[in-house]
Amino acid sequence: MRHQPIVLVADDDESIIFAFKEFFRKEHWTMMAASNAEDALTIIADRPLDLLITDVLMKAQSGVTLMLKARHSHPGLPVIVITGHPDAISEADIRLYGADFVFVKPLDLVSLREAINDCLHRSAHRPNGSNP
């Protein structure tokens, strides 16, 4: 039986979460949502995931901090970082911290779809499938 990939989207902007839900529904992908890094970390600890998509700037903890913590507990977890503030941190720095892909809002859906497919393909071929 084939595993249905699960993607966690962390963003404190409800309109972005709604847009991702619509996008994922059309692609027939399973999505979970978190409005902050703390909730995302709880989901990551409780469920196997195949991909994390996080905004850079969120209240309390940044998406970069979320990515680092998620990668610490689940080293193989692919991460896509999105930002509406490309001046807040450079793409090179985000990639240095471990992001697989970086996108600036508004998102190019064709490129995003390709990046998600790439991440899900790599996730499916990690040892133990999803998160340990």
Present the secondary structure layout.
Layout: E1 6-10, H1 14-27, E2 30-34, H2 37-46, E3 51-55, H3 63-73, E4 79-83, H4 91-96, E5 101-104, H5 109-124
Parallel strand pairs: 1-2, 1-3, 3-4, 4-5
Helix pairs in contact: 2-3
Helix proportion: 40-55%
- Integer tally of domains: 1
| SS class | alpha/beta
Give me the CATH superfamily: Response regulator
Stretches with pLDDT under 50, minimum 5 residues: none
Sum up the overall morphology in one term: globular
Radius of gyration: 13 Å
Summarize the structure.
The chain is an alpha/beta fold. The chain is 43% helix and 18% strand.
Describe the structure.
- This protein has 132 residues and is an alpha/beta fold.
- Helix content is 43%, strand content 18%.
- It has helices at residues 14-27, 37-46, 63-73, 91-96, 109-124; strands at residues 6-10, 30-34, 51-55, 79-83, 101-104.
- A 5-stranded parallel β-sheet has the order 2-1-3-4-5, with helices on both faces.
- β1 (6-10), α1 (14-27) and β2 form a beta-alpha-beta unit.
- The longest helix has 16 residues, at 109-124.
- The radius of gyration is 13 Å and the shape is globular.
List its salient traits:
single chain; 132 residues; alpha/beta; Rossmann fold; 5 strands; 43% helix
